[in-house]
């Protein structure tokens, strides 16, 4: 149970698409801050826009968060389902004289805007219905907030610092539409209040909304949460992040071979840091993260940096877990060409494989050397290594291999070294054709390690295949 005054944050995405990378960062910062403060992190789906909200998007948001290990507390809250509660508050504001019914038609509103434009006044609702003592029939009016136009609203933002807005800039905005549905502005405030949200951490594109929302809190006599508006993410060229820059759904990063902990590490370093620490575990992040340390400048998304961090996490990742991730990829690719015992071999060879792979796609590709059934397919570079000279060395070394009592990488390495010395060649002259014969490629983990993992029978059979072919 959190303490009575514990921090409660939330992530409130609109389910109109996948969980994109910028949203994931907002969720992560909210999560880290809540956990840092020993509080709770909640998830609210802002699905009031029925035309644009889809169940697929709701599912994608949840699975994206789960993949990133950003777990929310309690059940997910649907904003749409709370519409009656939003309407109740609009009526309470009416009863308190803090809101009024407005029957202006679209034509009247247009004319009002035109007039204001001509007179050079700001084009906002002039409040003409606020003085009417009418009682319009249901369905014929909207409910507007009777906004405070005098003075100014001062926001102490945890990231932006003090931000002031003159209340004369705030219009009597709509709370409830004529069909009785709430506007976003009303729904957010009612939900944040009812969910006990203490800290609203969101993109700075919401800053202007905040000043309007603060007026609803005040009108209801509710305590205003603390706000923190984070700068949006930009592309590496400093422009607003778009698909071209990598503003994709988080699942796209998974499909590109990223590990979730690498994506999280990368995202949290965008706009936040702790000294010069680059690699920060989840535990450390929870210990260190404070919203007030998020920078004010827009963070730039850099795909190369993400790739480097990912390579780092590949080396740290558990072998079995990596094998589980790449196995379906290998299965899909190899189909009938999968050898028996492939999975065990991949697991045994994982340390050597993961050290060389920057992402899970590369890992799955390189693991094929252990998974493919004989006879292998040879790439061009391997075929070149299996030239006349290479084949001749391989033939001679094949004889040595038959005499070996054990088949571990040290013994194999020593045998190759001894052979090379005898023949008067460099070790590479035998190691390279050997690699080509055993893997069909010129790149692989250490060839003696590969031989140990393949075992004597499979290794010799592959060498014999090459000797027969070239
Ligand atoms: N649903 C809003 C969005 O996706 C967020 C609202 C909020 O965080 O207050 O931009």
Description of the structure:
With 470 residues, this protein is mostly helical. The protein has four domains: 1-77 and 231-316, Rossmann fold; 81-230, HUPs (Rossmann fold); 317-371; 380-469, Arc Repressor Mutant, subunit A. It is built from 18 helices and twelve strands. A three-stranded parallel beta sheet has the order 1-2-3. Strands 4-5-8 form a three-stranded antiparallel beta sheet. The radius of gyration is 32 Å and the shape is elongated. The termini are far apart. 37% of the residues are buried. The mean pLDDT is 95. Glutamic acid binds at residues 12-14, 46, 188, 202, 206.
What is the number of E strands?
12
Helix/strand class: mainly alpha
In helices, the fraction of residues equals: 40-55%
Q: What kind of sheet is the major sheet?
A: 3 strands, parallel
Reported by name, the CATH topology of the largest domain is Rossmann fold
Instruction: Quote the average pLDDT.
Output: 95
Domain count, please report it: 4
Task: Give the helices and strands as they follow along the chain.
Answer: EHEHEHEHEEEEHEHEEHHHEHHHHHHHHH
* β-sheet strand percentage: 5-15%
CATH architecture of the largest domain: 3-Layer(aba) Sandwich
| Continuous helix count | 18
CATH class of the largest domain: Alpha Beta
Question: Terminal Cα separation, in Å?
Answer: 71 Å
Gyration radius (Cα, Å) is 32 Å
Low-confidence stretches: none
CATH homologous superfamily annotation of the largest domain: HUPs
What sort of overall outline do the alpha carbons produce when their principal axes are compared? elongated
Bound molecules: glutamic acid
Q: For the largest beta sheet, what order do the strands appear in spatially?
A: 1-2-3
């Amino acid at each position: 149970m959190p303490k009575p005054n514990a921090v409660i944050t939330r992530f409130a995405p609109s389910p109109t698409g996948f969980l994109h990378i910028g949203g994931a960062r907002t969720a992560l910062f909210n999560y880290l801050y809540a956990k840092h403060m020993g509080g709770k992190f909640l998830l609210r789906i802002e699905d009031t826009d029925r035309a644009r909200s889809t169940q697929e998007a709701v599912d994608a948001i949840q699975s994206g968060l789960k993949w990133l290990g950003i777990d929310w507390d309690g059940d997910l809250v649907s904003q749409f389902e709370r519409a009656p509660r939003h309407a109740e508050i609009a009526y309470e504001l009416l009863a308190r004289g803090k809101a009024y019914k407005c029957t202006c038609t679209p034509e009247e509103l247009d004319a009002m805007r035109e007039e204001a434009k001509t007179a050079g006044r700001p084009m906002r609702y002039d409040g003409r219905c606020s003085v009417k003592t009418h009682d319009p029939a249901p369905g014929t009016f909207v409910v507007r907030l009777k906004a405070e136009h005098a003075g100014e609203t001062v926001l102490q933002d945890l990231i932006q610092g003090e931000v002031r807005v003159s209340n004369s800039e705030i219009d009597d905005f709509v709370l409830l539409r004529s069909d009785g549905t709430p506007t976003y502005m009303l729904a957010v405030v009612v939900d944040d209040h009812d969910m006990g949200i203490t800290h609203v951490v969101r993109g700075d594109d919401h800053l202007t909304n905040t000043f309007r929302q603060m007026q609803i809190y005040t009108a209801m006599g509710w305590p205003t949460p603390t706000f923190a508006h984070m700068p949006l993410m930009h592309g590496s060229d400093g422009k607003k992040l778009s698909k071209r820059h990598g503003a994709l759904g988080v699942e796209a990063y998974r499909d590109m071979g990223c590990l979730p902990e690498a994506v999280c590490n990368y995202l949290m370093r965008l706009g936040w840091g702790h000294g010069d620490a680059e690699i920060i575990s989840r535990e450390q992040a929870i210990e260190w993260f404070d919203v007030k340390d998020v920078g004010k400048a827009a963070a730039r998304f850099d795909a190369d940096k993400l790739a480097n961090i990912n390579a780092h996490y590949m080396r740290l990742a558990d072998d079995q877990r990596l094998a589980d991730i790449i196995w379906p990829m290998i299965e899909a690719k190899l189909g009938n060409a999968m050898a028996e015992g492939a999975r065990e071999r991949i697991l045994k060879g994982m340390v050597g494989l993961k050290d060389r792979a920057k992402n899970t796609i590369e890992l799955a590709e390189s693991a094929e050397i252990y998974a493919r059934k004989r006879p292998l397919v040879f790439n061009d570079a391997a075929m070149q290594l299996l030239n006349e000279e290479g084949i001749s060395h391989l033939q001679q070394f094949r004889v040595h291999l038959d005499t070996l009592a054990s088949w571990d990488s040290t013994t194999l390495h020593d045998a190759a070294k001894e052979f090379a010395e005898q023949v008067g060649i460099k070790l590479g002259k035998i190691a390279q054709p050997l690699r080509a014969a055993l893997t069909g490629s010129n790149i692989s983990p250490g060839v003696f390690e590969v031989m140990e993992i393949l075992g004597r029978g499979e290794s010799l059979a592959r060498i014999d295949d090459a000797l027969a072919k070239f």
